[in-house]
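Components:
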Amino acid sequence: MNKKLNIGVIGLGRLGSLYAGYCANRLSGANLVAVSDVREAVAQEQAELLDVSRWYKNYQDLLDDKEVDAILVVTPTSLHKAVVIDAARAGKAIFCEKPLSLSVDECLEIKGVIEQTGAFFQMGFMRRFDSAYVAAKQKIEDGVIGKRVQYKSTSRDRNRPSLEFLKPEHSGGLFVDMGIHDFDIARWLMGEVKSVYTVAGVLAYPEMKEIGDVDNAIVNMYFENGTLGAIDLSRNAIYGYDIHAEILGTEGTLQLGYLRETPIQVMKENDISHDTVPGFYERFEKAYIDQLDNFVENVLHEREPAITANDGIAALNIALAATRSYQENKPVELYEREGGV
Amino acid sequence: MNKKLNIGVIGLGRLGSLYAGYCANRLSGANLVAVSDVREAVAQEQAELLDVSRWYKNYQDLLDDKEVDAILVVTPTSLHKAVVIDAARAGKAIFCEKPLSLSVDECLEIKGVIEQTGAFFQMGFMRRFDSAYVAAKQKIEDGVIGKRVQYKSTSRDRNRPSLEFLKPEHSGGLFVDMGIHDFDIARWLMGEVKSVYTVAGVLAYPEMKEIGDVDNAIVNMYFENGTLGAIDLSRNAIYGYDIHAEILGTEGTLQLGYLRETPIQVMKENDISHDTVPGFYERFEKAYIDQLDNFVENVLHEREPAITANDGIAALNIALAATRSYQENKPVELYEREGGV
Amino acid sequence: MNKKLNIGVIGLGRLGSLYAGYCANRLSGANLVAVSDVREAVAQEQAELLDVSRWYKNYQDLLDDKEVDAILVVTPTSLHKAVVIDAARAGKAIFCEKPLSLSVDECLEIKGVIEQTGAFFQMGFMRRFDSAYVAAKQKIEDGVIGKRVQYKSTSRDRNRPSLEFLKPEHSGGLFVDMGIHDFDIARWLMGEVKSVYTVAGVLAYPEMKEIGDVDNAIVNMYFENGTLGAIDLSRNAIYGYDIHAEILGTEGTLQLGYLRETPIQVMKENDISHDTVPGFYERFEKAYIDQLDNFVENVLHEREPAITANDGIAALNIALAATRSYQENKPVELYEREGGV
Amino acid sequence: MNKKLNIGVIGLGRLGSLYAGYCANRLSGANLVAVSDVREAVAQEQAELLDVSRWYKNYQDLLDDKEVDAILVVTPTSLHKAVVIDAARAGKAIFCEKPLSLSVDECLEIKGVIEQTGAFFQMGFMRRFDSAYVAAKQKIEDGVIGKRVQYKSTSRDRNRPSLEFLKPEHSGGLFVDMGIHDFDIARWLMGEVKSVYTVAGVLAYPEMKEIGDVDNAIVNMYFENGTLGAIDLSRNAIYGYDIHAEILGTEGTLQLGYLRETPIQVMKENDISHDTVPGFYERFEKAYIDQLDNFVENVLHEREPAITANDGIAALNIALAATRSYQENKPVELYEREGGV
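Structure:
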């Protein structure tokens, strides 16, 4: 059997715990060898649950662990810069969950250290590994839809997370926290974004005003190649977790996404109904695993990362421009940022 | 402008009134010139509503009307024999709604007179004119599904009609009244039926026992070419009027039918729902019109009838065999009937 | 039988001919008594086809016809002003196809004469009579989706009409010709529009540049009540005629539209497929008829018009703002127009 | 952490290898501790792949292994009797893949030893653990569809397995190998079967005649409670792996199943299409895991087995009756078997 990659997971929140479980059980090329969380009890509990011998309160200790080949950074975004930079200097291969950071300056700092150290670094944008998006990318490249013309995508949560989670100083706000997936896919499938214009508001949860964020938004955009895009975001879909996208071309169109979770229809008097996908875990479990699998294979076989720090920066840049467009109620050009990437 | 066909409608029940309206307004090649119904007030009312100058209580008077080129027979089935035979002798072109009769002997008598008089005669089986069935027929002939292997079809009413209507002596019972459409399509798309076996019962409406009919049934069958079929019938779909069919082949499959009436989805908490087709009128309006249009064109251009008395007899024959199979709980061969068609 | 409304149809292009046919055959409360078209042969041909005794080359002659109670204005848009004003002065009830005019000034002139003469005037926006839109309006009013939050709608043609038809001086351009339906529904379901921002381009048909119009566009918008909207338009859907809409609320969401024309699925190796709605006639035939039926009933029973000149002006106003937003690449406020409605 | 169940897997064919992988990685309550296969190299390879220290050529050696608490029997069906009986006598908890055996006599022998030894024994019918079937069972029990009236189910493979696999002496033939899932679900959702009547034939693969089996069949049935059923089977769906079912009741209907694998629609000229579920693994992966999870939990917590030997016998009994009905072309009553279960 080939050598496996020894992985340490830093940050054991909801997603971090999932990732740790995937490393322990679902990745044929990897072993989970260590976990860390500032909440030591959480780290210990996960370690025991997953049959891992080492857990750390301090991520630095995990980085000092010689058994650890690679790390997954799943901490709060505010810690990404410190962890990624320390890991790069410690010579670990790095997978970092989106968003890379909440500011482009921090991103550039991270990118500088990655380049300087030559560390392997891969961004996490799991949608790129979902079978629908993979198929769309391939079909576009195969010419199935001719020339691309419009990109549309929708991200909707059933209802809002906690206000604590949503605070813009933690989450980055609606565009950075939620929209960044749509911006990343927009770039991946259509090309670079030239400008954005945002309409948004607090329309479902008045309490959002207290934390200074919006709960609904629509961003339209020009791509640099002249094509058009529109992304809509909502915290209050109510009916279910709804992620879908469309790429309209001159010779065909692709529609991505689905809504039904359980394959059963209930047929009552003049009413046919079905349930819905409840959340990101049910919708994207396989994409998460395939994304980590890809990271592991890229490290083991010394391939290029599938998604780079530049991708992380570019998506953040659009999200920040969309935020600013809303605040200033005007179209924002992406190149406006000095030293733009 | 070309000559139009002058049509008289005999029988102004629910379907007869629809047909009269279609003749008056929807058929470019026909005029409605007369109507008749034993309920004279009904005849008069329809005539006025449709701006027709002549109405008759007695269908014989309509047949004596020299202005009438062609008639639609939409009376209760028990009168079909008398009306069709009289019309054939009166030299009218005849369209007769299904079923041709409730007994094969009567059918043969009708057929004899049609042949003897040379009258133009066309059976009514509107499904053959529905766009889905037309497309299926064409695709089968074009080889899209390769060799045919299985035929499945379903007919379901939302709930039972009145007991008076359902009495087998009037309606012919579930297999003749409702199943005959499925048997006709089975023959049309697959070939002649060799044998049938029926399971059936009174499962939803106990009062059906009083009139001596069942409310649910499944008939499976061998076709003479060795292929297989299954038809299920229900008076209690509740959710909507559901007519669908499937033809499974060696290189593909066709599925026919649809359920949603209004093109709107209502998305509530963990529930996506839509309404349903309420009844035969909404589902098959265009097929009814196209069927009459076809009759008119065939008469005007002296073409062969699209559906013949033989088709009416063959479908009835299967329906009666299915009935007998249920009663005797054994497979029934179609050729068993002496003098079988 | 009640009195019927005697209708004259002015303009016998594609839609005008359809309307004339509906008046002749499909409206229980109306008679078609006259038609006019500048192409006299066309007028005569339609009159004969529909069994109407009077046809006119000059619409004024039709307006002078004492038998005519009401007219449908289905001429090129550039003639709407003259015909509507003359008809109002001639005391006819008026139905005018969208758009009311290509300029707001002309609209205001028309509106002035309507008010002055007291003529019955109803605008044509057939989507408001489609069963999906009717259901959506009702469900919103019933509180099914709670508070409205986002409106999205899509209009796509399979491919572009002739350049001659598309010339902005005739059609008004993409936003006036095609988008006006979406703008009207936006107002009807969400409320007045406050501002718009448009991204657009010539992306599929380079020859559109010659006539000075775009072939794809996305308009996002604030409504005056703070809710959000996005409308996307395309001349090159290729796959089919696709009209759909969505209203997202705080307690539910409504999705309107459908794509399959023939109720058959073709299932081949690893491929399930179906056809699509080809065009506006197939998609909206019933809505067109219901719209005319509503006009007839409103006139006969002296009810208020369902859709007014103000509705025509407001939708045009948004379409013109969307056009200007594209041209100037900035958000445009609707109230910016002096003397705005 | 609680004690885990130590599992040995006997038989490492396609399904056995999957099961071994699930035990190694996907069941939180179990460890895979040993595997066996008559092909020793296969056993060794799987053991190494799954990081298991013990592999056996001879299943008896695995049964002698004191570390093994429970076994999964995934051998060819012809070996089920020997393995299950030996395992029962060795005191192991037993999970046995369907069908229990190819003859009722062998089944009864197995059942006798299970009862005599008191061994824990659970049959494998994974559909009972699929979310759609679980939901259907619950909804029926909750009264959602009122009284049950009809049961319909369909099982279709894309194309036939190898003739070697299909030989009735190995597979049991179409009704035992494939239909047994439908018969089991029929019993589970509707109640005991009273009689069956089968139509069947070699319609797609002429070479099936050589091995003495059919490739297409439709079985209709009476349940003992008077309700009706129909099951259709095909080896040549071509379009995809299609498993669906329907339960029609007096107050509603349930439809189970789905066809699309990748959540993307491709929209080309007058054609909307999507791909299909390729096979049992993609369709039922989660059900397989949930089924093993259930077995593990039942053993660990000393609960009753979810599916018993009697269930295995009853489903086999129906499958054999369906086979005989085809061979003798007559309805077959289930109680006809002497000593019937």
